[in-house]
Structure formats: C-alpha cells, structure tokens
C-alpha cells in the first residue's frame, strides 16, 4: 500500500484532468454582465460561459428560484412526475412549433436524442433503411462519439477510432450540394441556423426556407441545432423564426437554464410519438431544479419587450463592430452574426486577439474560421456594448505590433 502511494505521489498529472487550456483567471462572483476576481479585478463578460449565462451573473429572479427549489427538492428521477418539467414543456410548446419536449442535460445529449428520434421515426413508419443524417461543414454538434461524427471535424475525431456511421457532410449554405447528398438511406437534415463554433456563420434565410421545402419534397425530417443560437440569442426566441419556417425537431441547451445544466429536444407529434417508454431516457434530465431554472429564464425572456430589446441592442453592437472592422482592416476583416451572437473575423490569430481583449478587461471566446466570438448575456445594455466596443478598439491597437511581427517573419 505504501509503495502504491509513493508511485501515485510521483505522478505528473494534475488532480483536475488537463483536457482544457484554461486561462489563468478565477472569478469569485458576478454582477450582471461583469465577472469579478478575488482581488476585485472586473471583466466585462462577452463570452457568457460560451453563450450559456443568458441572464448574466447573479440575476435576482433566477438566483431566487434556484435557491428556493434547492431547498424543496433537487432530484427525483423520471420514475415520477416532475411538475416543473411539465410546466416548462407546456410553455415551450406554447411558444414554438413543437408538440412535445424531452429534457436532458446538455446540447450533445439533445442532439443525440434528435438523431435517435429521426432514425426511430423512419423505422417506425416503414423505412428502417433511412438512418443517415446530412450535416454541414463547419458544424459543431457536441463531444459524444456520435456527435463528433455529426460534426465531422477531423480535429475532434482524431484518436477516437472509426467514426460513428450515419452522417454525410455538405458545404454550409449550399442547397445544390445538400440535395445531391440525399439518398434512399437519408432520414433527415441537421444544421445550425447560425453556426457558432464554426465561426459565427448565419444560414441564409432563403437557404433555411429551401431546406424546409426540400425535406418535404423528399419525405425526410428537418432538424435544427439551436443549442447556441436559440433561447432569444438571435433576437427571436428561436433563430429559425427569422425565416418564417419550422423544423420537425430541434435541440436546445446552453442559455435555456441560464447557466444551470439543461438541454431539450423539441419535436412535432409525428416525431415525438415514437420515443415510447424504454426507447430513450436520462437519469438527471428534466430534474425539478433544472426545470425551475428553465422556467425562471423563460419568465425573463418572454416578458414584454425583452426579445425586441435584444434585437435593438444587437443591431447597435453590429453597427459598432462593422465600424471597428473598417477602422482596423489589418486586424479585423469583417463582422458576422445575428442578434447577440456576433463575431469578428481576424486577420491575426484569433488567440492573439482574445488575449489582447482580455488584457483590456473583455472576455471573449475563440471560434472556428479564425473568428473572435462575442456572445454577451442577453441582459447587456447599449452602454455596456459601448464599453466593449471601446475595449475592442484598444484590442485592435494592441494587436498592431503582432501584425508587424508577422510581417517581419
């Protein structure tokens, strides 16, 4: 036993597994859109826990509801009725295309449920051969084995053996390529109306409308991954609403719980009816505490004028980012996104831009295609946007020496 302990003591790995490149910052508390360290340094949070802290930090209504529910009951499992889940499902159905909702814990789980629902629907309606799902290049659907296959990024697939079968990939925003990829084995289409991890790339609204028409034409299912772009982030409750169409099935997570782990799959009746008892499940999903948080978030997002305010503040931020890119074209080449899901395409490595922004007191998130992702809490004010724009202006000026260094090489 002593020898085993000595061998263990000599290990070089940290107790907390080192599978993240964490920034050397720890936050003691938050206030709205601001995070504060133990030594009272303040950072304006335009990362929002990767677009998850939808109501910011310390939101009085959300905090109160979570605390009150935690004192009553936290978890009971889905062996029993969960009134908080029933309420949240009813509210989501009332305000969406869906007829029914399945709750889980994360976006990856919600997307797994969506793919399973697509396959199950086809099998139960006489087409078990239809199991393949068409996804787009630049997507991000999660970190499970199936969802890294759906994502299709070689970086995420490396080292995990053969990719899970059943996913075909086509260029984003290219309807001809997608139509050409449909075969007798195709069950459905899975896309993000606004790609997040892939570089803050919105789908063309006409493309979304054409996807709906294409799915109907071929008798396949249309699924939207709104894990990041849903729950008000686009300025509407769900991003696909801008196109005036509806999917058959959709995934939600991130902002739905305001930072508390919660995911959901929303489905129309012709999809949801096939997930009968025993076909799919979760231990933690839809707990009293998680759904109490979800209901609190909905209370705020559905309040009169809240979504319109997101749209107004998002447009103000957008115009500021366009002007910033015009002032510093050697640092930022373009602004991208919708609502409060925005980004700056960088001419320098986005990690350099992220570090420079951090030095100015602004938290951001790197994204694919060399984009600096800017996804503040939905409660952000225009005044705070202006502070962020000033910080980004200073960030660009900090980055100019980086460009000079790159040019010298």
First-residue to last-residue Cα separation: 55 Å
Summed over residues and divided by their number, the pLDDT gives a mean of: 95
Number of domains: 2
Question: Could you please say which CATH topology of the largest domain applies here?
Answer: Aspartate Aminotransferase, domain 2
How many distinct helices? 14
- The CATH fourth-level homologous superfamily of the largest domain: Type I PLP-dependent aspartate aminotransferase-like (Major domain)
- Order of strands in the sheet with most strands: 4-12-11-10-7-5-6
The global form is globular
Structural class comes to alpha/beta
Radius of gyration: 22 Å
How is this structure best described in words?
With 409 residues, the protein is α/β, with parallel strands linked by helices. It has 2 domains: 136 residues, Alpha-Beta Complex (Aspartate Aminotransferase, domain 1), CATH 3.90.1150.10; 242 residues, Type I PLP-dependent aspartate aminotransferase-like (Major domain) (Aspartate Aminotransferase, domain 2, 3-Layer(aba) Sandwich). The strands form 4 sheets. Strands 4-12-11-10-7-5-6 form a 7-stranded mixed beta sheet, with helices on both faces. Strands 1-2-3-15 form a 4-stranded mixed beta sheet. A hairpin with a 3-residue loop joins β16 and β17. α4 runs parallel beside α11 and α13 packs across α14. The protein is globular, with a radius of gyration of 22 Å.
């Amino acid at each position: 036993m002593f020898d085993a302990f000595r061998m263990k003591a000599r290990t070089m790995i940290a107790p907390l597994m080192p599978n993240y490149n964490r920034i050397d910052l720890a936050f003691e508390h938050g206030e709205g859109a601001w995070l504060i360290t133990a030594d009272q340094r303040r950072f304006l949070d335009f990362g929002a826990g990767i677009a998850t802290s939808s109501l910011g930090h310390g939101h009085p209504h959300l905090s109160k509801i979570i605390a009150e529910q935690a004192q009553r009951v936290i978890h009971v499992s889905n062996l029993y009725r969960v009134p908080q889940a029933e309420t949240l499902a009813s509210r989501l159905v009332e305000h969406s295309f869906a007829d029914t909702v399945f709750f889980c814990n994360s976006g990856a789980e919600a997307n797994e449920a969506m793919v399973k629902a697509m396959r199950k629907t086809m099998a139960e309606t006489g087409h078990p051969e239809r199991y393949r799902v068409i996804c787009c290049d630049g997507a991000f659907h999660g970190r499970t084995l199936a969802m890294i296959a759906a994502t299709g990024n070689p970086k995420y697939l490396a080292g995990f053996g053969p990719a899970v079968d059943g996913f075909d990939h086509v260029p984003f925003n290219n309807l001809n390529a997608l139509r050409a990829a449909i075969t007798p084995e195709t069950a459905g289409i899975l896309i993000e109306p606004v790609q997040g991890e892939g570089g803050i790339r919105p789908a063309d609204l006409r493309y979304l409308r054409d996807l709906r028409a294409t799915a109907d034409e071929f008798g396949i299912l249309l699924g939207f991954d709104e894990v990041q772009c849903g729950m008000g982030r686009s300025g509407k409750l769900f991003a696909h609403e801008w196109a005036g169409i509806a999917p058959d099935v959709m995934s939600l997570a991130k902002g739905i719980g305001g930072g508390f782990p919660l995911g959901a799959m929303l489905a129309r009746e012709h999809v949801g009816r096939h997930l009968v008892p025993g076909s799919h499940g979760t231990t933690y999903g839809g707990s009293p505490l998680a759904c109490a948080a979800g209901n609190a978030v909905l209370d705020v997002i559905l309040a009169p004028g809240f979504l319109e305010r997101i749209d107004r503040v998002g447009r103000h931020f957008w115009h500021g980012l366009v002007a910033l890119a015009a002032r510093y074209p050697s640092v930022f080449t373009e602004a991208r996104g919708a609502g409060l899901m925005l980004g700056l395409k960088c001419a320098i490595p986005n990690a350099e831009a992220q570090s420079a922004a951090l030095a100015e007191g602004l938290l951001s998130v790197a994204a694919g295609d060399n984009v600096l992702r800017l996804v503040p809490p939905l409660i952000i004010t225009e005044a705070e946007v202006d502070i962020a724009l000033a910080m980004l202006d200073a960030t660009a000026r900090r980055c100019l020496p980086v460009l000079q260094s790159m040019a010298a090489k």
